[in-house]
Specification:
Number of strands: 26
Number of helices: 7
Structural class: mainly beta
Largest sheet: 20 strands, antiparallel
Radius of gyration: 26 Å
Length: about 550
């Protein structure tokens, strides 16, 4: 088992895995058991639109603003702007719709998932007030949901140009040619999934043999499906999010300079279920096949954030914050299953016990700059700029190639990300009106994606924009109720479900010689609708 995990770490960094004799395989379904740079990228992306309803309604443009519980997550210097204490709770409803398209597909489908839960819970307590240089001091704690992984994808395509069984066939023939592995070694009784004789990206081929999708004779391995699929179906469901627990301190120096720091503990909870099905033409020995993967990733990390806000004149505020990388330790559990229908009977094989392993990585650092102006004592205009060094994603703590490969991948495929946020607010005695928006520029180095979309076996957001709006109400002497709506439209990285390309070397008479087998390239597009309600009180 130890040797298997070491081998995994050596191979996981790129979405195209190079095996002996130039057989290159990859894609989302193939790499489900792997630690993948694209997957780590997804865990590195958080958004300021999650938080209190006030900050969400203003597009998250809070680097130079404060006196809000979201300050602990964005710029802790804003905690120093409190003149008293505050508590609040935010509940959020999210509807996420993922539309997926593929070139030459007769039908593209989308799926949506609805989730409801706690978005933010926090308290800020004013512990010191004075007329001296240190005017006030506040401490705070906040829980904050920083990312939402809930999505559903489904797509049907017709007249496929290739079958995943062809890839399995070539993989097994290459194994037989370059090693002493026999068909008997692939039987469940020999536990091939926990043998150091096989790579993780060969597990699908082994499942295919165990279900009866492939057979073996004197010429090598061959597929029983008899043809390319008449049609296929691909689906994916993801669940979970990123959750932050922040402890913060904010200081007010002479009502001119505000300083703050946050220590944060971050939790990742992610589950992915992918499914692929092929339906063959009438008369094929195999009527259909299916292949399901389930991947569960959980873990925790720690980070720190530092910030300052300067008020050169009463109506102007200039803010800056720096977020250190989050240093994660995460655990992954993977389980695969495959089945086929032959003569009305279903034959099923599984990877038996789940594959469990652990990895360490850190997210990129972030720099936030912001400016805001108070107009007429009633209106606020705020603008933020954020830079995240996505080319600085790093793995840690192993000596088997994963650290170097992840560094190389992140620097080759990704560039620093830039996001602009704008927020508006007009306050009255009873209620306030708010609006905002954001735009995230493309984080991918387009020219380096390659023929097989190498960086994107696991799709992640690459660019997008948000539009936000909200209302705030003062209730009684100290209470408040805030309402926000967030619309987010995000373009994601395209990916292949599976692909392989072999060399010109004849591995067996049944091989596809010098050719390639590639699924369609899928392009996701996500639309998020969020409604949040904050109830709180200042005291």
């Amino acid at each position: 088992m130890k040797k298997l995990l070491i081998t995994t770490l050596m191979l996981v960094a790129t979405a195209a895995t190079l095996q002996a004799q130039d057989l290159i395989v990859g894609g989302r379904q193939i790499r489900a058991p792997f630690w993948d740079t694209g997957r780590l990228m997804g865990f590195s992306q958080t958004d300021a639109i999650y938080g209190t309803s006030r900050s969400a309604a203003m597009g998250g443009a809070f680097t130079s603003l404060g006196a809000d519980l979201s300050s602990m997550n964005i710029n802790p210097a804003g905690l120093g702007m409190y003149q008293g204490s505050d508590w609040g709770v935010t509940m959020s409803l999210a509807i996420d719709k993922m539309n997926t398209s593929a070139p030459n597909a007769d039908m593209s489908q989308g799926g949506s998932r609805t989730s409801f839960g706690l978005g933010n819970l926090g308290v800020s307590y004013n512990v010191y007030n004075s007329s001296g240089a240190l005017t006030s001091l506040s401490i705070g704690f906040a829980y904050n949901r920083a990312a939402n992984f809930n999505s559903r994808t489904g797509i049907n395509t017709y007249g496929e140009r290739a079958s995943v069984v062809e890839m399995f066939q070539n993989q097994l023939n290459l194994i037989e040619r370059t090693s002493d592995v026999t068909p008997t070694d692939l039987d469940p009784a020999h536990k091939p999934f926990y043998s150091d004789r096989f790579y993780l990206d060969e597990w699908g081929a082994i499942l295919g043999y165990q279900t009866g999708l492939l057979g073996h004779d004197d010429l090598g391995y061959f597929g029983f499906n008899g043809s390319t699929p008449n049609d296929s179906y691909y689906g994916a469901v993801t669940r979970g999010g990123i959750y932050e627990y922040n402890f913060a301190l904010g200081a007010n120096v002479s009502n001119k300079l505000y300083l703050g720091a946050t220590l944060g503990i971050t939790e990742i909870n992610y589950k992915e279920e992918t499914s692929y099905e092929e339906y063959y033409y009438e008369g094929s020995p195999i009527a259909s096949m299916w292949w399901d993967n389930t991947t569960r990733i959980t873990g925790a990390g720690f980070t720190a954030k530092f910030g300052a806000v300067y008020r050169p004149v009463p109506a102007i505020r200039l803010g800056a914050a720096f977020h250190l990388p989050t240093f994660y330790t995460i655990d992954k559990s993977y389980h695969g299953a495959m089945g086929c229908f032959e003569n009305g009977e279903e034959y099923v094989a599984t990877t038996q016990d789940p594959l469990v392993d652990q990895q360490h990585f850190n997210t990129p650092p972030k720099l936030l700059l912001g400016a805001s102006a108070i107009l007429g004592g009633r209106a606020i205009v705020a603008v933020d700029w954020e830079m995240a060094w996505y080319n600085k994603i790093r793995a840690r703590g192993d000596d088997f190639g994963y650290v170097d490969d992840t560094k190389a991948d992140s620097e080759f495929f990704y560039k620093p990300g830039h996001t602009i946020r704008v927020g508006l607010e007009h306050s009255g005695d009873i209620f306030s009106i708010r609006a905002g928006g954001s735009y995230m520029f493309d984080i991918m180095k387009e020219g380096n994606l390659g023929e097989y979309q190498n960086a994107t076996s696991n799709p992640t957001p690459r660019s997008g924009y948000s539009l936000t709006a909200g209302l705030g109400f003062n209730v009684g002497r100290n209470g408040y109720v805030d309402l926000a709506y967030v619309y987010n439209n995000t373009k994601w990285t395209p990916y292949d479900f599976y692909y392989f390309q072999d060399s010109d070397v004849i591995v067996s008479q049944y091989d596809t010689v010098g050719g390639e087998d590639i699924s369609r390239v899928y392009t996701p597009h996500r639309k998020h609708h969020g409604i949040s309600l904050t109830i709180g009180s200042r005291f």
